[in-house]
Amino acid sequence: MKARALAASLFVVVPLLLLGQSDSALGHVTGGDDIDAVDAAREFRIGVQAFNRFAFNEAILSFERALSFRPGEAIILDWLGRAYYRSGFEGIALQQWRASAEAYGRGAEMGMIVAGRAETVSSRRNFLPIADDDIRYVQSGQFPGRAGDQVLYRHPTSVLPVGDGSSWVVAFGSNELVRVGVDGVVLERRRGPLQGFDRPYDIARGPDGRLYVSEFRGGRVSVLHPDGRWQAHIGSRGIGEGQFVGPQNLAFDEEGYLYVVDFGNMRVSKFDPDGLFILSFGTRGPDFHGFRAPTGIAALDGRVFVSDVVSGRIYSFDYNGDYLGVLAEGLNSPESLRATSDGRILAADGNRVLLVDPNTAIARELGSAGGPSARVISADVDANGNLLAANFDAGYVPLLTRIDDMAAGLFVQVERINADRFPLVTVDVRVEDRLRRPIVGLGSLNFVLTEEGRPVSAQVFHIPAYRSDRADVSVLFERSPETLALRDTLAIAISDIESGLGTSGNILSVVSAGEQPGREPSLNALEASARGNAADFTDAWRFDLGLRLAATDLLMGEQKRSVVYVGTGRMGDLAFEHYTLAELAAYMANNSIIFNAVIVGDEAPSPELRFLADETGGTILPLFRPQGIGEMLESVALSPSGLYTLSFRSELYSDFGRAWLPVEAEVYLMERSGRDVSGYFPPLE
User: Fold this and answer.
1) By C-alpha distance, which of 644, 258, 601, 140 is closest to 415?
2) Start-to-end CA span in the chain (Å)
3) What confidence score (pLDDT) does residue 133 get?
4) How many of the other CB atoms lie within 10 Å of CB of 196?
């Protein structure tokens, strides 16, 4: 049966049959002891068990049968919505959740939880850290510089987010770097070389992952290992080439060249990836009047942008230091500039944070961090999409969050409960924001699990998925007449994919998207699997069925996972005959599967492929590119994950495995929180 056809069995919700307190353990689920209640409970159990095996289509059928016995039952509607959601049918899932919320009662706790889930899913739009809209950011917390009488750090001048959710804070006043977790707790300190930092000012990450720290009074740039251990110096104090007087902000271009704002010498110095001086620019000349007080710097798309705190302008230069003009003027007191992942510039300007488009010169205020007299020296976007602002005068780092994210809170889902070793229970909890971005960096103190409102016994927080550097891949080969002539190229592609994964990943399956897509039988002969059977190459090849099969193969794999499509990039006439483009994107996104594409041949990839990559956080690359496709596979293993695993020992009565046992998961982060209520059946005794 087509999954979409399951929607035909939707019913008109009849008046609620409230969850009752029956002597029967199954009656807690279905609200009664009659034969329909028993049959509904049996199907509900089967559905929950199928859901926890990732057999979502089977779960949908079981929940539909349960509803045929007990129409309008709120808990069954809720779980039917969960199964449709994980299957990629978000529209139908929303119908079930809204019906469930009405059945529970909008004012009831469960009604509000289910209604909130539906509202969050319906409002999702994209993955960008900063959206193109007028939403403002408001302070949602802070990384304090003091804890009572204890000084944690003094006078922050820069922040640098880390992929695990933590952030480096440059403490100018206490001569150190401190790494701070998502909840504001100081995780570690780095004080530089043997003699220590000499007024560290800015921090930047090089292309190789190493950290670079400018030392304002030391007149140099320190080079650190990615974990913060000091390694070397670049430059020295002075006015000559490669020397500094008060170096401040740093930036790297796409080729790994380092740019240093030399405040005292009123210029910018450029160094090659080995730390050798190349040139300096920004002094007075025939085309440029010279800096008055250069501060921030950002490099992107062949241009270097430099802010000047006295003139209130952002100037533009090319990578050779030739002056191009004024990007923005009339600013209050611009300091740091940071290039964002979508090609714009984040500017710290007085007490506010601006977003500047380098192509249109339009500047938009995102939010403020403190009163009019506050001095924000640096701002950046952390791994969870928040703004971090180094407030120098106030001595702390405010955390700013989108207003709508504050209102929506955290999107918490209990994805799976494993009770095979009951009373030991393992719970997988996914934490996201309303735009489906994973929330990383959480720890044991951010989670509270309860059973029937009481804290669970022996709660254990396991190593979270975001710390994993392993990935699983399912490779999907286009079997069209065009790829029949490229079978040797397909073999090269899978060899490159295997090499790109290295020891950090596995190829779980190879799927041929022919007229009847199927798995290639042997993973021990990958090149033969890539070439496939010549009879499978046809104009009637099915992209949608092949992609669905490849994605399903990943559900029980590593939490960092990707379908890698290899083909011409043209979809064919039957590409979305069974599953729509939106359904395929939702199926992968709702199960944390990244869609990547490797293009063979000379065709440009279709808009549909780009949509799938954008919606799941993937990329599209040509096979034969100078850099290869290794970075695509590496990015899967390094991708953020909001999945967390906890375990506990249940103290509830199992009724010999017949009881429905509820579990509640609450997650707290600064001023935001989220909650989900789920449950499970223990093994039958």
Assistant:
1) 644
2) 34
3) 56
4) 13
The tokens for 662 are 């509820």
Query: C-alpha angle 103/106/109, rounded to 5°?
Result: 95
What is the tens place of the pLDDT at every residue in 261-290? 999 999 999 999 999 999 999 999 888 999
Q: What does the block give as tokens for 350?
A: 């007085």
Pairing of strands 323-328, 303-308: unpaired
Task: Please list, in sequence order, all residues whose beta carbon lies within 8 angstroms of the beta carbon of residue 40, skipping any fewer than 6 positions away.
Answer: 29, 30, 66, 67, 69, 70, 73, 76
pLDDT tens for 176-231 read 999 999 999 999 999 999 999 999 999 999 999 999 999 999 999 999 999 999 99
Give CA–CA dist 265/377, Å, rounded: 20
What the block records as the tokens of 378 is 């640096």
pTM of the model: 0.88
Beta-carbon-side half-sphere exposure of residue 95 (alpha carbons within 13 Å): 12
What is each CA distance from 300 to 213, 256, 659, in whole angstroms?
A: 20, 11, 59
Distances (CA, A) of 595 to 314, 346, 569, 618: 38, 29, 13, 5
pLDDT digits (tens, 9 = 90+) for 2-38: 443 444 333 333 333 333 333 334 455 655 668 988 8
